Predict the structure.
Amino acid sequence: MFKKKIFPYSTVVELTLKCNMKCIHCGSSAGKDRENELSFDEWTTVFKDLSDLDCELITLMGGEPFLRKEWYELAKKVKDFGMNVIFMSNGYNTNDEIISKIRKIDPYTVAISIDGATAQTHDSIRGVKGSFEKCKDVLKSLKAADLPTTVVTTVHKGNFKELPQMKEFLVGRDIVWQIQIADPIGRFPKKLHLSLKEFYSVALFIASTRQQYSLKEMPITGAHCIGYNSQVLPNITLSPKWVGCQAGITALGIQSNGGVKGCLSLPNSFIEGNIRKRSIKDIWNDPKFCSYTRKFTKNNLLGDCKDCKYGKICKGGCGAVSASLTGKMHGDPFCLYLIEKQTQLDS
Amino acid sequence: MKTNIKLESMLCEAGQILDIGKNEIKNAVMSRKNIIVVGLMAFFAFVLVHNITYGTLRYTGASIHDFIQLGKFL
């Protein structure tokens, strides 16, 4: 009766695959730019179409988005079409000139990736010596320029134990801290993936930090890949309730060569079109697009999610985690409810 | 949900990995209970306000039909 309107509220755009870092957890194996990346005019058409589709938020990422020559002009186009901009950068080439241009854009937030509490950890994960100190300087400059700032930390076995130290560094700095888990796609080796218990400890860390500090002192949040339906922990994500993978429902991802997926974190086997062949409007409005979420039924659930009481709403957790670990959607084993349930069943 | 011994020990083990103390775990777990209590209180407050509004409207001579119309308006 009241059919919810589907629109790409948040679109993540890979401006270029070119990157000046070699992060071990990079899901898109960034480094060299893709062959035949979209031109300025092509991106402009995409942004115009997205605005027509009522998109509200565009995340410009890479690779490293500031390595794309016309990043500023493209960000300006996004703003001109009435949408908000998020920059997601590794911070390595972010200098004063870039920061003053970012200010002119008036972004929703500028996200900088920091993956450790020490230079040794961060630099070894990012593959570039000196990048940790550089990131810290960039954070200072962003705050000095009065820009809303976010730190994104991707956790795995190689760095998650440094979260408490990172907390000490970030507390009271008016910086949002988003924690996400590394998925075994792209360059990331499966052996570094967190165990279920380690994953749970990260969720517990976020929950206890939220309890320890006010949201103003330490605005910490888990990303879409952390924490569903826990029976003992409070909600640790940004949204009040987990309502399942949003690929093709409120989320959309576009690669720098025009490839379109419901979510940029999904493996490349989920590319469902290219904006050089069909407009983004056509792809989005195609009834077959993202049928795995749009036409999801309880029968699609896999593994332990099959008989889960939350399955219908949860859709089997994060599609990207599920697909990267099991090869299929709708069966994300990294679920707080599942871990708690299995622990109780063991007794 | 009542946390059984196995679950409690899992919480402690998970906490130990990141040096989260027992009290911190207790607080984190407690905060969920608080949310449930606040939720329940909000629900009962809503029912109370709803009933008072309904009673007042009926007392002032409004029909059930008027009440439905007001509900639609709200």
User: Anything to note?
Assistant: Strands of chain A lie at 10-14, 57-61, 84-89, 109-113, 149-155, 175-181, 220-222, 251-254, 260-261. Residues 196-212 of chain A form the longest helix (17 residues). Chain A has a mean pLDDT of 94. Chain A touches chain B through 28 residues (CB under 8 Å).
